[in-house]
Design brief:
The protein is of the alpha/beta class. The protein contains 9 helices and 26 strands. The radius of gyration is 22 Å and the shape is globular. The structure holds alpha-L-arabinofuranose (AHR). Alpha-L-arabinofuranose binds near residues 27, 73, 299, 347 and 348. Alpha-L-arabinofuranose binds next to loops.
């Protein structure tokens, strides 16, 4: 077994890790919102006010900081007034974009805001500028946040909510270069300025407005927006990038059946996130050297062919240890870039794409990806510190190890390490500059790369304790192949 050295400098604080980096996304797509989160008060499935109790508990356990809603592509077809008022009389429609499901609008603004209250997370609303009007979006903000006397505030009160909600994050359109209107960046920039102007800060509420940013490596989109929109109060700009094993949208590959080569290609494809974030940040740095505008990676994760026998429009896929490695690597990347990235949202929360939870009737499964969010939660609200790990290539140009380290308010250092190699174990020797390790403890998620949790075997892949040896002011852990580890170190 090889020994590698991990060096930390707890005195070199690099940036703050905003909790929202550990955010999620819930679209009206397939069984994410309906079935996955919301089953209604009359359901036999245990629920709190219609929300699945197990899902609420699971969100709370990982300290879910922010949830994006209602889309995705659905957002630019969503008309919020269809989803308020007496549920039984809300408009029904067909969700033409995603699988032709009947959308009965029983989950609307009040239901989403209540969900966020129950979970204790920030709501992130994605506004419709593709097929909605300026007035419609402006009214939605007034409806949610205005405390005074106005038609929208009165309507909200009539619908049972006296006090306005606090809404921080507002997306002004989604994928406006694609499903959100097929716009050019020049046109979108003007549209952003127009829509954003009428999204007002009411009653002490301050909106953090997020422009619809680039698709993957489209740096021109970023360039145009930075040039034309910044003065118009764009606090954030999104970036969407999905990990495809084959790089081919017509044949993405199976979630559970893949060979070693396809595995390493997946990891290579996910590592492109580092390059993308670096390139978009470089463009942003030229216009915004003080990093006032955040890069918001509000859609990321794996995208495979759907599980055989399921509706192709529902994007339901299984989730293996391969996904855990993908999650570990991406979260380490976002931590490393936390000076520019204040928020990221994995796609999606339940039953869609790289979901953290899967449901079937009353059963719920925590996926390996969920466990990575659980392992990493201690990074939330800590400060990123300098760390360096000796590394080597596994295969297909993929480095074996990825790491991230932070220090919290109490001075505890927290280190996360992923090992993408399917064959090599590493002894990782952890040493800190200017201080000796007094004690340390660890947790580990590991398994054969195809291993996953099912409704019959929900705990096949779970977090186990990781033995940490401390001696001579250092800590040492063994990181097996295909694993993600977290170590808390007291100095
Ligand atoms: O997450 C699924 C879809 O992927 C979203 O609706 C869209 O924004 C992206 O293309």
């Amino acid at each position: 077994m090889k020994t590698v050295h991990l060096t930390l400098n707890p005195l070199e604080k690099l940036s703050h890790i905003n909790p929202e980096i550990y955010g999620n996304f819930s679209e009206h797509l397939g069984r994410c919102v309906y079935d996955g989160i919301f089953v209604g008060e009359d359901s036999d499935i245990p629920n709190i006010e219609g929300y699945r109790s197990d899902v609420i508990d699971a969100f709370r356990q990982i300290k879910l900081p922010v949830l994006r809603w209602p889309g995705g592509c659905f957002a630019d077809e969503y008309h919020w007034r269809d989803g308020i008022g007496e549920r039984s009389s809300r408009k029904k429609m067909i969700n033409t974009h995603w699988g032709g499901l009947v959308e009965d609008n029983s989950f609307g603004t009040h239901e989403f805001m209540r969900l966020c209250e129950l979970v204790g997370c920030e709501p992130y609303i994605s506004g419709n500028i593709g097929s909605g009007t300026v007035e419609e979006l402006s009214n939605w903000i007034e409806y949610m946040t205005f405390d005074g006397v106005s038609p929208m505030a009165e309507l909200r009160r009539k619908n049972g909510r006296e006090q306005p909600w606090k809404l921080k994050y507002l997306g002004v359109g989604n994928e406006s270069w694609g499903c959100g209107g097929n716009m050019r960046p020049e046109y979108y920039s003007d549209l952003y300025r127009r829509y954003a102007t009428y999204c007002r800060n009411y009653s002490g509420n301050e909106l953090f407005k997020i422009a619809s940013g680039a698709n993957a490596d489209d740096c021109n989109w970023t360039e145009v927006l930075m040039k034309q929109v910044t003065p118009w109060h764009m606090k954030g700009m999104s970036l969407h990038y999905y990990t495809l094993p084959t790089g081919d949208w017509s044949h993405k590959g199976s979630a559970t059946e893949f060979d070693e080569q396809e595995y390493y290609k997946t990891i290579s494809s996910t590592l492109k996130m580092e390059e993308l974030v670096t390139r978009h940040s470089a463009v942003m740095d030229r216009y915004d050297p003080e990093r006032k505008v955040g890069l918001i990676v509000d859609e990321w994760g794996t995208w495979y062919d759907v599980e055989p026998g399921t509706n192709p429009g529902f994007l339901y896929q299984q989730n293996t240890m391969r996904d855990a490695i993908v999650a570990g690597i991406n979260l380490n990347i976002f931590n490393a870039h936390s000076a520019r990235i204040p928020m990221a949202n994995i796609a999606q929360a339940v039953n869609v794409l790289q979901a953290i939870l899967l449901t079937e009737g009353a059963k719920t499964v925590k996926t390996p990806t969920y466990h990575v969010f659980d392992l990493y939660k201690q990074h939330q609200d800590a400060d990123l510190i300098y760390s360096h790990i000796e590394n080597e290539l596994a295969a297909e140009g993929v480095p074996s190890l990825s790491q991230s380290a932070s220090v919290n308010a109490e001075g505890d250092v927290f280190v996360t390490i992923s090992n993408a190699s399917l064959t090599e174990s590493y002894t990782v020797d952890i040493a800190a500059a200017f201080a000796g390790v007094k004690s340390a403890e660890g947790r580990l998620l590991t398994g054969e790369v195809h291993e996953h949790n099912t409704f019959d075997e929900p705990d096949r892949v779970t977090i186990k304790p990781l033995t940490v040896n401390t001696a001579d002011g250092k800590a040492a852990v063994i990181i097996p192949p295909c694993s993600v580890a977290a170590v808390t170190v007291k100095l």
